[in-house]
């Protein structure tokens, strides 16, 4: 991997809260603390925006001599970057979107680490975790009170073909023409396409200040650099808080073709919507893709039916190859969300009424032991089975692209997932389809080697 690097000093673009001496010390002490390592990893990924790599280990090894030094100064903070990827600069100046995201990462990581010991943070209860997610989003200035529901979350794969990518752009364009904003996981593929389409539509409608919100977490951002259209980047501490942030700030969700990461998000969402307390809460969900992806979408739909049942299937619509209809149905669903929240005096900017059980909020560590002990059986309630299936997919995501997951697979071999044959067979078929359709890795990379084994 040939690389060109530069050494440069960068001041914040826009505003960044002044860091305390303790916070600067947390980041910079001897260049060896855990907070520093986390920020260095995220900073390197942001500087690699546009690189066709989805392996955190590869990026870290390619720029192992990259350093970032944080300097306190009277007007805030300055970053000194050593051996930084040169592609992040034009004529010696850092690209504006890259600079914004770099300081967003600094803001989020410093705040997360500094607040964990605060007596105001309660991570021992479900309401406390939700309140923490709220505080993280509020600190990032993501919550805008009084703005009517129009934030559409788009989930889908980073490893998709050009036809699926173009389709996601068309859907984003239709959403943008209806003055809707876009939230994604902020990486490539489906995380970029809808934002790109909406950007053009917003320009046509003369909409200034269109929002392109990217929600990520350190393990993912290191493997999937943010796309440059994102104008609001928030780095949540872990997968579970990121997923909760999606459903708390989003008013509806569109799911495009993808791989295990998309399946993980879909199952998390279904697990929440299937909870008895959420039966009457409107939350529009649409599963969609181009005609060429119909077999994939129907297979995912059938998998939900085989494992979670018809009630789970009733929680979403399937629309094939019709971007305009997707936008029409989403806009109609958002009107119901608006009326529901008005009737109950619920906030537009944060979905407080949605019940999320603590099991969905606790971080899942995909060790080989934890993966093998997941209860994949219909003896547990449907919403709990959905949560366990989500964890199984989460482990595969870790084994595919995350540094710690890749190293665990190298050391101990593939994960093993065990459960009832009625669940494991459709699970195995779905995963085999993901591999056959090249949905596990970025196209053009090395051949995919499975990091899992399904055992019934």
Automatic annotation (TrEMBL):
<dbReference type="Pfam" id="PF03641">
    <property type="entry name" value="Lysine_decarbox"/>
</dbReference>
<dbReference type="Pfam" id="PF11892">
    <property type="entry name" value="PpnN_C"/>
</dbReference>
<dbReference type="InterPro" id="IPR052341">
    <property type="entry name" value="LOG_family_nucleotidases"/>
</dbReference>
<dbReference type="InterPro" id="IPR037153">
    <property type="entry name" value="PpnN-like_sf"/>
</dbReference>
<dbReference type="InterPro" id="IPR021826">
    <property type="entry name" value="PpnN_C"/>
</dbReference>
<feature type="domain" description="Pyrimidine/purine nucleotide 5'-monophosphate nucleosidase N-terminal">
    <location>
        <begin position="9"/>
        <end position="115"/>
    </location>
</feature>
<dbReference type="Pfam" id="PF14793">
    <property type="entry name" value="DUF4478"/>
</dbReference>
<feature type="domain" description="Pyrimidine/purine nucleotide 5'-monophosphate nucleosidase C-terminal">
    <location>
        <begin position="335"/>
        <end position="455"/>
    </location>
</feature>
<dbReference type="InterPro" id="IPR027820">
    <property type="entry name" value="PpnN_N"/>
</dbReference>
<dbReference type="InterPro" id="IPR049788">
    <property type="entry name" value="PpnN"/>
</dbReference>
<protein>
    <recommendedName>
        <fullName>AMP nucleosidase</fullName>
        <ecNumber>3.2.2.4</ecNumber>
    </recommendedName>
</protein>
<dbReference type="InterPro" id="IPR031100">
    <property type="entry name" value="LOG_fam"/>
</dbReference>
């Amino acid at each position: 991997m040939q690389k060109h690097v530069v050494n440069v000093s960068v001041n914040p673009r826009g505003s960044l809260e002044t860091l305390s001496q303790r916070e600067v010390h947390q980041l910079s002490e001897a260049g060896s603390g855990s907070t520093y390592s986390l920020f260095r990893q995220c900073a390197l990924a942001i500087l690699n925006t546009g690189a066709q790599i989805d392996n955190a280990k590869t990026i870290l090894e390619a720029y192992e001599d990259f350093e970032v030094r944080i300097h306190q100064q009277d007007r805030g903070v300055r970053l000194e970057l050593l051996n930084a990827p040169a592609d992040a600069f034009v004529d010696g100046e850092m690209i504006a979107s890259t600079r914004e995201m770099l300081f967003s990462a600094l803001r989020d990581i410093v705040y997360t680490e500094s607040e964990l010991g605060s007596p105001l943070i309660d991570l021992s209860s479900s309401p406390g975790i939700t309140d923490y997610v709220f505080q993280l989003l509020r600190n990032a200035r993501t919550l805008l009170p009084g703005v009517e529901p129009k934030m559409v979350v788009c989930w889908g794969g980073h490893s998709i073909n050009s036809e699926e990518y173009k389709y996601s752009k068309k859907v984003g364009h239709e959403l943008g023409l209806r003055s809707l904003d876009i939230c994604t996981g902020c990486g490539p593929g489906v995380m970029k396409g809808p934002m790109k389409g909406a950007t053009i539509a917003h320009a046509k409608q003369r909409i200034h200040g269109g929002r392109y919100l990217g929600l990520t977490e350190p393990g993912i951002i290191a493997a999937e650099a943010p796309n440059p259209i994102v104008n609001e980047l928030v780095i949540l501490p872990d997968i579970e808080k990121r997923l909760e942030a999606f459903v708390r700030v989003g008013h509806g969700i569109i799911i495009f073709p993808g791989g295990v990461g998309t399946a993980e998000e879909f199952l998390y969402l279904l697990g929440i919507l299937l909870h008895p307390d959420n039966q009457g809460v409107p939350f529009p969900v649409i599963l969609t893709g181009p005609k060429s992806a119909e077999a994939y979408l129907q297979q995912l739909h059938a998998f939900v039916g085989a494992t979670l049942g018809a009630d789970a299937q009733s929680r979403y619509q399937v629309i094939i190859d019709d971007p305009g209809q997707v936008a029409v149905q989403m806009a109609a669903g958002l009107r119901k969300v608006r009326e529901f929240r008005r009737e109950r005096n619920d906030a537009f900017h944060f979905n407080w009424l949605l019940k999320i059980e603590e099991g969905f909020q606790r971080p899942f560590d995909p060790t080989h032991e934890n993966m093998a002990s997941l209860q994949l059986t219909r003896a547990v309630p449907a919403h709990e089975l959905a949560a366990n299936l989500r964890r199984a997919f989460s482990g595969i995501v870790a084994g595919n692209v995350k540094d710690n997951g890749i190293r665990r697979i190298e050391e101990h071999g593939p994960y093993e997932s065990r459960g009832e044959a009625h669940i494991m067979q459709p699970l195995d078929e779905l995963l085999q389809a993901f591999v056959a359709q090249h949905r596990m890795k970025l196209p053009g990379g090395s051949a995919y080697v499975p990091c899992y084994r399904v055992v019934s």
